[in-house]
Amino acid sequence: MERYWNQEMECASPEVMKKLQDERLVAQVKHVYENVKYYRDLMDEKGVKPEDIKGTEDLRKLPFLSKADLRDAYPFGLLAKPLSECVRIHSTSGTTGRRVVAFYTQNDIDLWDECCARAITAAGGTNEDVCQVAYGFGLFTGGAGLNGGSHTVGCLTLPMSSGNTDRQIQFMQDLGATILCCTPSYAAYIGETIHEMGISPDDLKLKAGIFGAEPWTEEMRRSIEKSLGIKAYDIYGLTEISGPGVAFECSEQNGMHINEDNFIAEIIDPETGEPLPDGEVGELVFTSITKEAFPLLRYRTRDLCRLTRGKCSCGRTLVKMAKPMGRSDDMMIIRGVNVFPSQIETVLIEQGYSPNYLIEVDRVNNSDTLDISVEMNPDQFSDKVKDMQKQERELAEAIKTMLGINPKVHLVSPKSITRSEGKAVRVIDRRKLHD
Ligand code: DLL
Question: Which of 88, 258, 325, 371 is within CB 3.0–4.6 Å of 104 for a Cys-Cys bond?
Answer without folding.
Answer: 88
